[in-house]
């Protein structure tokens, strides 16, 4: 399905495009992008459905979304396979993603009630009431790394709040979106409330130009900054930008080197480093203990089991594409030229496709600091001579998504909480660990202070505050005629 407009799956009228599996090289999706005309139609369909959907009682919206969640659960394996084939993720991870999509319904219902529900309070003249209203038509742009869970994490709270949506999946992972559309349809969602347009930047550009009320975006900082500029001077368009990070992890004052190395290696290499919250920079004390930790991490990088999503017991699959693998090699070269010392090279594997090995580089002696996100399994090591210097290194970034501290010393954690600038800050846990029951986002170039997950309810609706008296009564005030 290339396009889903007003409840009907259609062929795209734009350019043909396809996706090959980065593990097998097989073509796993082919179709056509939506044309500008189709994008305009999709937005018009969402616009037409808005008023009725916004007025549908919340309990009915909830029932439909629960039925959608049940439909996702019943197709969980199909969803997991679609994700793994498109972007290469190990099947155990894609299964977790499919589970998270269904779990999103309950979490969103709870978050909406707690953060964007209704409230009534007695006042001298009668009562104060608070309600939340939907924005209108929301464009949802998905990233490739969680092609189901992350757009779903915008769409479900947006619908719950009474918005309608036009979803543009990532062109690098188009296969899961049609399953989502079918699940909405089987759940009885009225036609036009959710629409979908496949395609790349051109389709995205047409959606930006169309008559939308908001943009819910998860993707790279580069794209997010472009959107921010694009909508500059238009405060009436709701922008929720969830972007990347250059995430630091500090290991300081711990006896348990094996556990610390496990947490660091999983932080860096989970999902082949293709999680926004993966650790990119590891900060360690100078001296013998730091050396031992580096050795233990390099040993793990060497021993990780890498393979295709359906091979037994793999920890990580390939990167999303050959281009992504090339970009990772180029980034490594850039760090080496800046004075980095390779401890274990990130290499393309013989089996081709997006397959790369996990790399580790020591940047302590580098002449230049390169504050960019490399979306791959590549960890930079920095050494510090004090905990204060470690904190300074950690905060030396334009981003602020996730960070972590591994330590036996709780006092250091107390200090880290006050001084580390990151929206997701974990203690003795991987940086890539996050809960849907908490907000997700961070300062700096990681977003525009509209965190998602548990706080998505906030950006999906605007508050409406009312003072209410039962009947009009004459008013008096000093100097006011009686
Ligand atoms: P991306 O920015 O390349 O693309 C995201 C979406 O935007 C895609 O649908 C793409 O087609 C569209 N797009 C890109 N450029 C566009 C343009 N000029 N005009 C219109 N549409 C455009 O991101 P990606 O590579 O798919 O995803 C990886 C990135 O996402 C990483 O940087 C990662 O850190 C970030 N990410 C952030 C979070 C978070 O919650 N903060 C979660 C996952 C991923």
Number of domains: 2
Uncertain runs are none
* Coarse shape: globular
Compute the average pLDDT: 97
CATH topology of the largest domain: Aldehyde Dehydrogenase, Chain A, domain 1
Spatial order of the strands in the main sheet?
2-1-9-8-7-10-11
Percent helix, as a range, is 25-40%
Q: What is the C-alpha radius of gyration, as a whole number of Å? A: 24 Å
Write structural notes for this entry:
This protein is an alpha/beta fold and 482 residues long. It is built from 14 helices and 21 strands. The protein has two domains: 3-243 and 447-467, Aldehyde Dehydrogenase, Chain A, domain 1 (3-Layer(aba) Sandwich), CATH 3.40.605; 247-427, Aldehyde Dehydrogenase, Chain A, domain 2. Strand 3 (16-20) and strand 4 form a beta hairpin. Helix 2 packs across helix 6 (176-186) and helix 4 (91-115) runs parallel beside helix 5. The structure holds nicotinamide-adenine-dinucleotide. Residues 141-146, 150, 168, 170-171, 200-201, 204-205, 218-220, 223, 226, 242-244, 276, 373, 375, 401, 440, 452 line the site of nicotinamide-adenine-dinucleotide.
């Amino acid at each position: 399905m290339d396009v889903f407009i007003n409840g009907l799956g259609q062929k795209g009228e734009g350019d043909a495009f396809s996706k090959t599996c980065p593990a097998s090289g097989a073509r796993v999706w082919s179709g056509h992008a939506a044309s500008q005309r189709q994008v305009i139609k999709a937005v018009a369909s969402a616009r037409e459905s808005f008023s009725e959907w916004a007025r549908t009682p919340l309990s009915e919206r909830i029932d439909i979304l629960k039925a959608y969640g049940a439909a996702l659960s019943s197709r969980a394996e199909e969803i997991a396979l679609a994700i793994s084939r498109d972007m290469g993720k190990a099947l155990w991870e894609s299964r977790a993603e499919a589970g998270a999509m269904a779990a999103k319904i309950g979490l969103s219902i709870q978050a909406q009630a707690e953060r964007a529900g209704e409230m009534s309070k007695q006042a001298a003249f009668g009562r104060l009431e608070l309600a939340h209203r939907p924005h209108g038509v929301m464009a949802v742009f998905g990233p490739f790394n969680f092609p189901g869970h992350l757009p779903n994490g915008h769409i479900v709270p947006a619908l719950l709040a009474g918005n309608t949506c036009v979803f543009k999946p990532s062109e690098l992972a188009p296969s899961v979106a049609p399953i989502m559309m079918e699940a909405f349809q089987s759940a009885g969602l009225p036609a036009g409330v959710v629409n979908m347009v496949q395609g790349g930047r051109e389709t995205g550009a047409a959606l930006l130009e169309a008559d939308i009320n908001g943009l819910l975006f998860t993707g790279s900082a580069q794209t997010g900054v472009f959107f921010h500029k694009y909508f500059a001077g238009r405060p009436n368009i709701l922008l929720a930008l969830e972007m990347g990070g250059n995430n630091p992890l500090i290991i300081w004052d711990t006896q348990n080197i094996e556990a610390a190395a496990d947490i660091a290696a999983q932080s860096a290499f989970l999902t082949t480093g293709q999680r926004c919250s993966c650790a990119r920079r590891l900060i360690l004390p100078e001296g013998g203990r730091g050396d031992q930790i580096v050795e233990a991490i390099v040993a793990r990088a060497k021993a990780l089991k890498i393979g295709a999503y359906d091979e037994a017991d793999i920890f990580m699959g390939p990167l999303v594409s050959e281009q992504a693998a090339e970009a990772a090699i180029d980034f490594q070269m850039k760090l080496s030229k800046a004075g980095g010392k390779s401890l274990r090279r990130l290499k393309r594997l013989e089996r081709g496709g997006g397959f790369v090995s996990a790399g580790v580089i020591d940047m302590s002696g580098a002449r230049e600091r390169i504050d960019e996100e490399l979306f791959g399994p590549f960890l930079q090591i920095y050494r510090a001579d004090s905990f204060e210097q470690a904190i300074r290194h950690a905060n030396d970034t334009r981003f602020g998504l996730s960070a972590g501290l591994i330590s036996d010393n709780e006092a250091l954690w107390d200090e880290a909480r006050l001084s580390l600038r990151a929206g997701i800050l974990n203690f003795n846990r991987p940086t890539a660990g996050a809960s849907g029951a908490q907000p997700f986002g961070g300062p700096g170039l990681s977003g525009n202070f509209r965190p998602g997950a548990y706080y998505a309810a906030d950006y999906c609706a605007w508050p409406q505050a009312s003072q209410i008296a039962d009947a009009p009564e004459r008013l008096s005030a000093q100097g006011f005629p009686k």
